[in-house]
Amino acid sequence: MRKPFVAGNWKMNKTVEEATKLVSDMMPGLEAITTVDRVFCPPYSSLMVLSALLEETGLGLGAQNMHWEASGAFTGELSPAMVKEFCQYVILGHSERRAYFAETDETVNKKVKAAFAADLMPIVCIGETLEQNEAGKTADVVSRQIRQGFKEVALPDPEKLIVAYEPIWAIGTGKAASGEDANKIIGLYIRSVLAEVFGTEKAQAIRILYGGSVKASNAAEFFNQPEIDGALVGGASLKVDDFIGIVKAAA
Fold it and tell me: What is the pTM of this model?
């Protein structure tokens, strides 16, 4: 059995003061739900404060990105060791990073290797655009992202890798894929390709999330599907009742 996993990607939202209040308001509702891995991914500026706040709560903390190099002249970046000081997780390859900051499957691959080397658990995002979806290229796109993103990656423990399927056309648009469609894509195209890369046994142990306009009101539709192990949540992770509701649905 794969343990359900729900992470909130706050993107570029919340000051340190606002982040502290949001997490403090969520903690009583989330701490009781121990059958789900619950993770906050705030902006870099809040990681140190939230790390201290979450200590011994059982709630996880993740960064939204990192560089693959250990140190150097990379203005504006954080190294794996810097992220590891405060976090257990790191989001890699998010579609916004790919679209706005020129990330590629190759740079994602470097970051995945660096995350494992630093004992961080990567949440690796894959997904197709609306144009690719309508052209019937979903399978080709996600298969390429998996094969290139995990090229020559050693995976001793598959429970330490999280894959998030986020159809780009569903992120922040209010237009979510149906649970049935997302389950089909994850089962036929994502988990099967992970099996080619890592072997069937490991692929069955890797948790695969859905992301894209997930709300408390539609979360159960996704979590009731056998191939979907949780969610990478955007806007709804900034709302106390919505995020707790999604985690309850996962439980």
Answer: 0.96
